[in-house]
Amino acid sequence: MKVGELLAVGYRGGYEDLGFTGHILVVDSAGEIIYSLGDPDKMVFARSSAKLFQAMVVLESGAADYYGITNKEVSLICSSHSGEDYHVEAVREILEKAGLSEDYLQCGTHYPMYQPLADQMRREGIEPIPAQEMCSGKHAGMLITSKYLKDSLEDYYLTSHPHQQRILKMLGEICDYPAEKIELGIDGCGVPVHAMPMYNFALGFAKLSRPEVLPEGHRKSAERVVESIQEYPLYVSGTGRPDARINALKRKNVFSKSGADGFYGLGIKDKGLGIAIKLDCGMGPVRDAVVVETLRQLGEILDSELGDFKPETKMNVYNFKKEVVGQTRCIFQL
Predict the structure, then answer these.
(1) Where do the domains of the chain lie, and which CATH numbers do they carry?
(2) pLDDT over 90 (residue 205)
(3) What is the number of other CB atoms lying within 10 angstroms of the CB of residue 93?
(4) Three-point CA angle 294, 206, 37, nearest 5°
(5) pLDDT tens-digit series, residues 156-184
(6) Do 87 and 133 meet the contact criterion of CB atoms below 8 Å apart?
């Protein structure tokens, strides 16, 4: 594996204890690379960052209009949600509009990402349900589309299913990469996950930021996806999480979607930019710090707004006595 550039350093005392390498790529909607650290051709799984493109399939199929899916619910279909009560309620609303139940979800289960709720459930001996799984909104979107198009519902998660083939086609078109060259794996929730060069994912986000450059058939769905996650940032993420705070920035100029194992995708609307970030170590907290620092250097998070991003800008290292013994800091310059 080709290692990227040094993006952050972990200090213990005054000693450089840890190094975090990765890749940052900023591309405009015409395909020009504006900033590049690391390898723009690195093959990466965008993981959940690709959910914005996958949600476009639901919108363009006609299922969202037919079942009366709201922007709040579109945001949830794009989400890696925290399993809070309002997320579960929205998953159920989507399914009920299509006459489906939670029994159709094939996403598996895990305790909610919202830690206070997960702790409470463990104390009370309550087992998690599929609607609390972080990708259940995406799965609900897959199910209602499959029902609307009269595809089978029991195997909607398989690579061979028509819905998964529609997603593959959408990713190829938006990211300008041949669908037959997209590498496939299986994501944590059981559906196909897609890999292509960093450059193409960044280009896809750049096109979402400037939907007028897309073919006419994709423009409205791209606009609605971005509009939905910015209108309902908690539904695409959850309480306290950085992607919710980024999508909630007052100027509504930046949209973002986190992905697992160190990936993150963003768009900047007024500049028509797309950003792809990948940490080699896959560590989410360091990735989030790199994301915030990237936006700060691009002028999209102002110094006056940094107080809302203390977990990402003040990454202290604590000992078991809760004393600060070090700090992780970003060191890169775009």
Answers:
(1) 6-330 (3.40.710)
(2) yes
(3) 16
(4) 40
(5) 999 999 999 999 999 999 999 999 999 99
(6) no
183 phi and psi angles, rounded to 5 deg: -80, 140
Asked if 233 contacts 247 with a C-beta cutoff of 8 angstroms, the reply is yes
Digit-coded pLDDT (tens) for 25-68: 999 999 999 999 999 999 999 999 999 999 999 999 999 999 99
Q: Enumerate residues 6+ apart whose C-beta is below 8 A from 177.
A: 171, 196, 197, 200
What was the pLDDT predicted at 310? 94
Here the tokens at position 268 are 């900047």
Residue 130: helix, strand or coil by DSSP? helix
Q: Angle between the 136-148 and 162-174 helix axes, to the nearest 10 degrees? A: 110
Confidence of residue 277 (pLDDT cuts 50, 70, 90): very high
68 contact partners, CB below 8 Å, separation of at least 6: 97
The residue ranges of DSSP E strands in 72-222, in sequence order, are 183-186, 192-197
pTM of the model: 0.96
Record the tokens describing residue 216, joined without a space: 């006419």
Helix 198-209 with 51-61: angle, nearest 10 deg: 50
Q: What is the average per-residue pLDDT within 181-199?
A: 97
Do residues 279 and 66 touch, judged by C-beta distance below 8 A? no
Report the SS3 class of residue 82. coil
Backbone angles phi, psi at 54, to 5 degrees: -65, -35
Mean pLDDT of 232-238: 98
> CA 333, 177, 278, 308 torsion: positive or negative?
positive
With tokens 């203390």, the residue in question is 310
Question: Apex CA 145: angle with CA 187 and CA 163, to 5°?
Answer: 50
Dihedral, CA atoms, 312, 302, 199, 189, nearest 10 degrees? 40
